[in-house]
């Protein structure tokens, strides 16, 4: 009891010192959503912003985003001009899905430094994730123009006629060019997207993210052999990069290489989940027999009843009934009741059958909504 009281008193003391910079101040507390700040406070804390940045980087590398977040905020408190610390706060919140907090942190930077390329890069990436595409295009386009000024070039406002004239180096913001490629893909401008992704690979020649993006762009364009090559390159750069494994598994499933697809999905999920995902790809392509086999396999392999696969199996049966009742009318999946699955992974696939834009997720594979937007 004495130890608990001592810890509580120490935490209260630290909280009382917030205005002196001895812990995270009130101006930064609203950007912390972790659950262990008291523990970090009673431990030996960083005395300098440099030390806090090192502790944050080590925690982030170890996967402890709570402590990384706390230490980056600590660095910002010790030196309010350490804007790179706040950019990291925004990045961590974005990765954790805390979009409002991510946006607030990044806007705090941009209020003071409107030309901060890292903050613009992260904000544009966040806006894409939030499907605010026109805003993302404006943010990333502004960042691109700032980057090109370093080379003495002037990029006018509006859409570039030829992105192939752009110049980059290892100081260029990778996510800006990758994000502009994503926006081009969303407009089905695949050749333009490829130029941006190749620029991203010039910035970081071993970027799994850029290689994966290039692969997905080739996939969307129907260039499956090129997509496969790019995914393999991404995984060669980083064998732990989950988005590439998911996209590679989806591609293999669509190519009919089901065992290879299962193996790819299993790099990031259980065998039961992998079977469900392969089955789902078969389902959206209208291959009901194969879909049923994989859904039943997922149910059989799961230690407990695998609800998502079970619901997907019911969906197969519903489609069959519709086909039987409406011979020659195809499969109108948009009329189906669809189950809500666990949180979807970073994989999207184009549908081979008509689907409503609001169709809920039914696997770790998710369906994109149609995009109609003009982007500068």
From TrEMBL:
UniProt xrefs under Pfam families:
TPR_16, TPR_19
Matching entries from InterPro entries are given as: TPR_rpt
Q: Which regions does the record annotate with the repeat TPR?
A: 49-82, 174-207, 242-275
UniProt-listed PROSITE patterns: PROKAR_LIPOPROTEIN, TPR
Q: Which UniProt keywords apply?
A: TPR repeat
Q: Does the keyword Transport apply?
A: no
Q: Which domain of life is it from?
A: Bacteria
Return the protein name: Tetratricopeptide repeat protein
Q: Look up and give the organism this protein is from.
A: Geopseudomonas aromaticivorans
Lineage of the native species? Bacteria, Pseudomonadati, Pseudomonadota, Gammaproteobacteria, Pseudomonadales
């Amino acid at each position: 009891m004495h130890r608990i009281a001592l810890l509580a008193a120490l935490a209260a003391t630290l909280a009382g010192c917030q205005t002196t910079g001895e812990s995270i101040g009130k101006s930064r507390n609203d950007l912390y959503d972790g659950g262990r700040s008291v523990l970090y406070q009673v431990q030996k804390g960083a005395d300098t912003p440099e030390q806090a940045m090192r502790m944050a980087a080590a925690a982030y590398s170890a996967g402890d985003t709570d402590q990384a977040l706390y230490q980056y905020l600590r660095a910002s408190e010790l030196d309010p001009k350490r804007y790179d610390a706040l950019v990291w706060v925004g990045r961590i919140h974005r990765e954790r899905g805390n979009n409002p907090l991510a946006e607030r942190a990044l806007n705090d930077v941009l209020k003071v430094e409107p030309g901060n390329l890292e903050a613009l890069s992260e904000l544009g990436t966040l806006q894409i994730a939030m499907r605010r595409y026109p805003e993302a295009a404006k943010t990333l386009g502004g960042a691109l123009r700032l980057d090109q000024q370093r080379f003495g070039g002037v990029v006018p406002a509006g859409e570039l006629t030829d992105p192939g004239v752009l110049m980059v180096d290892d100081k260029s913001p990778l996510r800006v060019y990758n994000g502009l490629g994503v926006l081009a893909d969303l407009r089905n401008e695949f050749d333009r997207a490829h130029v941006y992704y190749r620029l991203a690979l010039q910035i970081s020649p071993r970027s799994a993210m850029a290689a994966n993006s290039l692969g997905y762009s080739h996939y969307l364009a129907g260039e499956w052999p090129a997509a496969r090559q790019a995914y393999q390159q991404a995984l060669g750069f980083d064998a732990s990069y989950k988005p590439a494994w998911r996209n590679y598994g989806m591609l293999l499933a669509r190519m009919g290489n089901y065992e290879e697809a299962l193996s790819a999905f299993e790099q990031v999920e259980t065998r039961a989940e992998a079977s469900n995902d392969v089955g789902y790809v078969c389902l959206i392509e209208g291959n009901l027999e194969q879909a049923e086999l994989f859904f039943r396999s997922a149910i059989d392999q799961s230690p407990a009843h695998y609800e998502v696969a079970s619901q997907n199996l019911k969906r197969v049966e519903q489609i069959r009934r519709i086909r039987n009742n409406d011979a020659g009318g195809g499969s109108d999946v948009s009329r189906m009741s669809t189950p809500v699955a666990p949180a979807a992974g970073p994989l999207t696939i184009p549908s081979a059958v008509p689907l409503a834009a609001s169709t809920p997720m039914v696997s770790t594979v998710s369906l994109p909504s149609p995009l109609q937007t003009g982007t500068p």
